[in-house]
């Protein structure tokens, strides 16, 4: 069967993954000369799939970043050993962390307070084995972390070094998602580098170890030119990309490897609407392009073969209904699309859209190969 | 264990369901005198749980509405037989519909075009058994459906009556979600009634049968005073309610039966932020209150016992991080909340938030009874 006839046979809505585009995105970051001297620790929170992890991690099971302990458990069960849980640790989660470590998973946690450091020390004592932790540094006011010059960093470092394992520092320039173009992303990359390296230097000046200096986000990983002092770079959404990343020029629309296959179920011709069976349950409620230069609604529409259709976007979404219309101000004509026509919707935010689905229907990189079904998982 | 100590032992984030509140919401609609003469066909798209269905359907397995064929399949397997699939039918889905009907499920489809009617007629012929369909009527310009005076209704009715089963008409005032107060909801209820009954009358005047006249939405079901000519009422989110419904006065905040249990993982004290482990993956990206009088961010914060905390809302959400802060303009003080503190977040949109979780952790209506785990499902 051709790709189009295979896609015609899938139930809708379904989540499609173009493996060729994904592999190109993975290679583009992996092969950046600026990253030659550092480790790449891809974030698997977008993927949540062992099959994707195999293709994005160094050697198929190299260092990984996760956003939930469930991800750590699933990926460890699949043979991935070096895992960073990059969300500030809740003390109640430490028994699960200790159990994973006791089973052989080299799991590292993240924290930014003395309370958390004391909890990690107590859990290390309870487990009879030190739990490694990174200290989160705030480089841009986005979310968690301590400023690089905060005296608590030293106190946290001391406590971890004494009663657990002080592995180093981590920062993430989440604000880089809000700025346009490689130069702006490179400026955030330098903020990441400067904050993380400054904090690491202070720890070392106090006689504390800091083997890991971890930075990263998709925009900064692709734009960084100087990683002096950095030991590892993290990035996640880049393996799929999405309209938010295209909107800040971190990728092109044609690099986006994910889409939602949908079927036309009706029309409101007087209003210029085409109704499809992909609503927000299939697309997610993410409206990440709303604040960008071009608002893509709930997603950009392409035909079944992946060719973007001029000015057609999903302008509204109910639970299981999407409304496709021309973007405001368009002079394009609304194409004739009989009931039953199949379309693909490119997502605003790959992490959110993928999170609505239980599997990827994969268009293999090998031309003419049949579709493949890759399960994905959720939960915590 | 007390409820609080049971909740302290759950992993976070978890989806909590207060069964007592749910049963009260269910009873409140079921017992409305205005609905005495009509059937109630609850929509199970919010619940996606056999345990919830048992408690909301008449007799535990009475008539139901669903938004996906997967819901139809799961609920039919649980013994629920009379099911309306209330999303416009895609022709490609008709073999699954026919298979469910052949297995004994009394499944009805919805359509609003001659193309779809012809597809249902063809599928009925292929199956050797007529497939029943309702014609969707548009009462408020919200989504699908034909205007009640559209001549196509008669042509569709003729084709269905000849080659399939014409079961009647359906309408849904989705725009009722955007207006405030019972009087405004009652006006939309009358638009639903008028549109559906008008279309039914026209079909009958043309000698066509119209046994079912189906209307409904949560706001209109609670506000309707005159249902003359209507045979059934549908509503879905009312079993749980949410902040969007509270914002239009379809319920009180204290009626909301769903919440997301979360744990404090950090602070940015200079910015007045409390960070928790419920981000948009646990809360959904739904910002349905953004356009209402009071914007509740990503949700209202209560303590572990369910007491709403003054002016505290989730002001921002990343994938696995929520930021709790005082709402803009508040003069309340930020409460001290050490790392490890447990909180509950009331959802903007119950359908979307529940959709992010694989199960309900149920606080039983019976005082002192232990927590119960009810699986929920997703997919299509």
Automatic annotation (TrEMBL), chains A, B:
GO terms for biological process: D-serine catabolic process. Belongs to the DSD1 family. It comes from the Bacteria. InterPro entries: Ala_racemase_N, D-amino_acid_metab_enzyme, D-ser_dehydrat-like_dom, D-ser_dehydrat-like_sf, PLP-binding_barrel. The keyword Ribonucleoprotein does not apply. Residues 257-364 form the D-serine dehydratase-like domain. The keyword Lyase applies. The lineage of its organism: Bacteria, Pseudomonadati, Pseudomonadota, Alphaproteobacteria, Rhodospirillales. Pfam families: Ala_racemase_N, D-ser_dehydrat. It comes from Aliidongia dinghuensis. This is Alanine racemase. PANTHER family: D-SERINE DEHYDRATASE, ZGC:162816-RELATED. Keywords: Lyase. GO terms for molecular function: D-serine ammonia-lyase activity. SMART domains: D-ser_dehydrat (SM01119).
